[in-house]
């Protein structure tokens, strides 16, 4: 059975941003290690990580906020349509073995909180600096957690 990494972060970032580049490289790394990506399925960080994973032949899962999945980015393989909006956040983080937070705002903060409640390892790049989040500066630092 394939293991998944939950990747969380902002949907409003631009493809030219550092966060987008980090997420894209992370997606490639995750797929090369034989793991899949699970995320909120939308734009920004979620699109970047899915794009990187797809380019390496990896599996991507989007836990969608809508009932229709029409808001999915084009790199999502499996859409799980929930109709739950932000209430889907606990499902996103519960689905992965580890969680990587990239940037983000209050939605990401809530996902970090659920991750810590569930006892998940949480790695963070330019995200909320709170107790329990292991701060990282490059995607390669995630490799040691993909066992």
TrEMBL record:
Top-level taxon: Bacteria
InterPro entries: CHP00725, LDcluster4, LOG_family_nucleotidases
Xref: Gene3D superfamilies: 3.40.50.450
A UniProt-annotated Pfam family: LDcluster4
Name of the protein in question: TIGR00725 family protein
Organism encoding this protein: Persephonella atlantica
Lineage of origin: Bacteria, Pseudomonadati, Aquificota, Aquificia, Aquificales
């Amino acid at each position: 059975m394939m293991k998944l990494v939950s990747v969380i972060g902002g949907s409003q970032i631009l493809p030219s941003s550092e966060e987008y580049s980090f997420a894209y490289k992370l997606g490639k790394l995750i797929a090369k290690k034989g793991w899949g990506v699970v995320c909120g399925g939308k734009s920004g960080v979620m699109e970047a990580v899915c794009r990187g994973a797809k380019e390496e032949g990896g599996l991507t899962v989007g836990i969608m906020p809508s009932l229709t999945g029409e808001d999915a980015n084009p790199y999502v393989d499996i859409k799980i349509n929930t109709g739950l909006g932000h209430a889907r956040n606990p499902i996103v983080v519960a689905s992965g073995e580890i969680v990587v937070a990239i940037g983000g705002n209050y939605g990401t903060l809530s996902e970090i909180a659920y991750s810590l409640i569930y006892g998940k390892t949480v790695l963070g790049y330019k995200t909320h600096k709170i107790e329990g989040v292991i701060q990282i500066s490059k995607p390669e630092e995630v490799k040691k957690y993909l066992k």
